[in-house]
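Now for one specimen:
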Amino acid sequence: MGSTVTVGKKAYAFKPPSGEIVYAIFENTYEKNCYPHTPHWGCCGIGNIAQIMRRIFLAASICEGGSLQGKKGWISPEGYIKGWLKELDCPIEMADKCITIKMGNRFYDAISQEGFAKISVLLQQENRQDIVDRLERGEEIALSLYADAQLIVTLCNQGKVSSWRLIPSAPYGGECNTSLGYHPVPAIRYEMVTPSAYRIDINDDCIIRQDDGSWHCEGSEYSIVEDYIAHLWQSEILEPGSYRNRIRNFRNAMKLAPKLPSESVKISVDLTVEMSQWNRKQAESLPQKYPSDIRLTENGYEITALTKENAYWVTGLRKEATWIFEEKSAVKIDSAYQENLFSKISIASSVGPVAIMSQRDRKSAYQENLYTEVSDAS
C-alpha cells in the first residue's frame, strides 16, 4: 500500500437551526504511487468538534508510520494536528448547499446497496421513513446542508457514509468567521501516560503491560504509537494543548523500552478466548509446527522457548497470548528507563488495554472516513 500525500487543509463551519456549530474539513491529497501526482480536494469529515477531532487524530496517527506524508516525505503527527487546529481556530463560514444522496453500486454513490440495511435503520430512527422509501425506489434525494445538518452528520458518523461521497469536493468561497472557531483554553496541568513496555529482542515487536498486570504483544513500536494517537482525541478535548507532550512522552517511552531476553520468557496461549478466524488458525497450528517448544495446558498450551523460528507466529497473537517472566527483573528495568523520561512531569504508571488497529485498517479508515458513533464531549 502506497502513501497518501497531503498538500492542503481547509476548515469550514456553519450554525444550523439546532444551534450547535457543525464543522466540515477538506483535505487536498494525492497517492504517492499513482501518476501523475494531481492533488484532489475531498471532504474528510463533518460533524461537531468531538467528531472532527476524532477524525483529525485518526489521520494524524498514520503519519507516524509514513502512510500519510507531506510533499517532502515524513511529517510528524504533532505537526499535522497543529495544522488542523490552526484551521479550526478561524474556519470559513460555509453557505447552505443542496446535498444529494442516492443508493447504488457505483463508486460515487453515497449509499451502497450492501450498506442500505444499516442506513435504513438510522433513517427510521430520525423519523425519515420517507427517505427510506424513496431510496428503495431508486430515487435521488435532495437535502439541505443547514436544515438537514443533523441527518447528514448522522449518516457520515454513525452510518459510515464517506463524507467525500456526500459533500461536494471543491472548496467553497467565503470569509473566515472567528465566532464559529474552536478556541479552547489550554490546560495548565495534566497527567501523561507512560507505557510499561519491553521490546522483544528477536524481532523488535513490543509487549505492553495491561491494567490487570498481564503482558501482551501489541505489535511494532510505531504501530503502538499510532494506536495511542488515534485514541488521544478525547484527552485533547478535555485538556486542550496536551497532545504534543503526550505524544512525545509516549513515543520516547516506546523508543527507550528495554529489550526482553527471549530465554527468560514463557508464553501462555489460551485457546478458549474469542479470537479472529486467522488468529485461531495460527494458534491451533503452533503445537504441530513446533512440538518441542510446547507444553499442553488445560486451556491451551505454553510456549516454553521463544525462538527465531516461532517468534513470527507467536507475536502475531494478541490477547490470546500472555507473556510471563520474572517480575523482579521487570521492575528493575522499568525503573531504569522511566527515570530518564520527563522527570519534572507527573506520569501515570501504565497504559490501559489498547484496541490495536493494523496500519492497513487505520489507513483504510482514514481514506474512507469510516467512523463509529462519537458522543458529544461534555
Observations:
- The CA atoms of residues 198 and 257 lie 5 Å apart.
